[in-house]
Predict the structure.
Amino acid sequence: MEQLPNCPMCGSQYTYEDGELYICPECAHEWSKNEAAGEEGLIVKDANGNILQDGDTVTVIKDLKVKGSSDGIKVGTKIKGIRLVEGNDGHNIDCKVPGVGAIKLKQEFVKKA
C-alpha cells in the first residue's frame, strides 16, 4: 500500500485521497497531488475560493483601515496587477492601492474581479 503524505498544515497522518486531492480529516485542509510532489508553488485563494495568480485584478470586499492614514481602503476598490508573496502572517498579496500606495493585503478581504 502506498504511504500517503502527512498534512502540511497540521501534520496529521490520517490523510486520504479523493480524486486528484489529498484531504486531512482533522483540519479539513485540501491540497493537490502536484502540490504534495513540490511542483506547485504558493496557492492563494480569494474570499470566494477562487485561485489567485500574479497579475490578477481584485476587488476589496470590506472597508479596511490603514495604519498611519486617516483614510482607508473602501469596499469596491479595484486593485490591478497583484503579486503573490509568502506571508507568515496571512498577508499574501503585495499590491499598489490607488490613493494609498504599496501595501500587503490578506486574501480573505479580496475577491477576483
